[in-house]
Give the backbone structure.
Amino acid sequence: MSKIVAVLLICTSLCVFVNTFPQNQGTRIIGGEVAPAGQFPWQAAIYVTTADGQYFCGGALVAPDWVLTAAQCVYNAIQFTIQLGSNSLKTSDENRLIVSTSLYTVHPDYNPQTLEHDIGLIKFHMPITYTDYVQKINMANMGQIFDGIGVTASGWGQTSDDNAELTDELNFVNLVIISNTECQITYGSQVKSGMVCAVGNYNEGICLGDTGSPIIKPGIKGEPLHVGIASFMSLNGCETAEPTGYTRTDVYHPWISNLPRVTLDKKTIKNARIIGGQVASPGQFPWQVAIYKNTTDGRFFCGGAIINEQWILTAAQCVYAATQLTIQLGSNQLQGSDDGRVTITSSTYFYEPRFDPTLGVAHDIALIKIEEPLTFTDYVQPIGWAYIGRLYPGKVVTASGWGQVSDADSTLENDLSYVEMTVFDQIECQAYYGSQLEDTMICTVGTTNQGTCYGDIGGVLVTKALDWLGDFTVAVAISSWMSQNGCESSDPKGFTRIDAYISWIVNTTRDN
Ligand SMILES: *[C@@H]1O[C@H](CO)[C@@H](O)[C@H](O)[C@H]1NC(C)=O
Ligand SMILES: *[C@@H]1O[C@H](CO)[C@@H](O)[C@H](O)[C@H]1NC(C)=O
């Protein structure tokens, strides 16, 4: 009897992200053909990061924001980078769409040893738009998968046992479904009712790197139907004539249909540099200030924004327990000999009375008073903040700061950077952070993992607004926190909504 082995491909130097994929002469999954563009528009290439390393998988788009794959491909995942719309893993392709996310759900009874219930789903932050090259596939219902039917497997897995690399071009191969009884001749009782096996004429089939990829069959009207998820093969290798194993789509269709919109692990909020940003030009963010906070425990760095001649808006974390605040304004460089640079100190600050760092990051907003009114120049200007326009999901917002640029580099940047993100749906953000996320906060996401990091806290998030005077830029939120998974994760970044505290800002600046 052959032992079942998982088809998961571990990424060593062999499987890296799109741009750096090594050259490969191979042309197929075992015994297959290269797919023409748009033939499998639901096919997804999935790069999975876990604490143990990186893996490559396939998957299928089953809704504008869901990819169906194997549980092996999502189990213990920290982050996914998913490619849609291109049959090539590395050649430039204008139809390619890259999505990053860390959201997934895995079948609750999945067993990594036996590969039972090897099914999982990856969720995007926002639905994608279908194109000729990006389309969903419908899932088969009960009764649509039986012995003897022809199916098609597609994937980027190895094309032979000797060639341990992925293929650059998507391959497909035609297979025939066999009964579980017949499959048990090879694999014994390891074959369970939630699984289905397929064979080729000779040794065709899936190989390492194909895990999670779909097998499909034509429906009644010839429309493609997803019938299985590549899950296992024989320990004897990919080139044997032994059947290959799949998770049956029909058995799990009800489980998928009944999934809540989002079922996710709660992540702990961590206090939150600009990741994936660009260097700002002089005077582009004239309201931006750098704040050095001295406390009895040490010195901390934050951002902030000038809102008028005497007041700086920042996060409560940035002033709490401060013995003195040193504020630098008028320059994009933290260090240098810029004429515009002004450095002032203050120990007059006010944080929202409900802010309590022992309880979390709620009400993370503060004001710093400057005794000597500022002189405005091209490089020192206030930002408007009293904006109550709706921060609808998808609205484009810009953050700026000197924070870290990657998780590995914990130093501040000398040059001010900025990044564009979009406002994230509050309900979906709650799925990440649970009740830690309050109505007075908003979340943002980038197309990949752009966002704020340590050292950006206190800086304001701005957006374009429109009134009868025309276009203007307005501050809408204050950088406050990020996920425990680090700045480079695609988890949403958190901000304090300014509109929730308008009367506190008005009163504090009026009465002090
Ligand atoms: C603040 O801290 C820095 C670094 O520890 C120190 O050089 C500076 O003198 C401190 N300022 C005050 C007013 O304590
Ligand atoms: C601001 O002051 C007004 C009175 O001038 C008061 O009614 C209101 O509650 C205050 N708001 C806050 C948040 O302190």
Residues 192 and 326 are 67 Å apart (CA to CA). The pocket of 2-acetamido-2-deoxy-beta-D-glucopyranose (ligand 1) is lined by residues 294, 299, 324 (CB under 6 Å). Confidence is low (pLDDT under 50) at residues 11-28, 261-273. The first helix runs from residue 180 to 187.
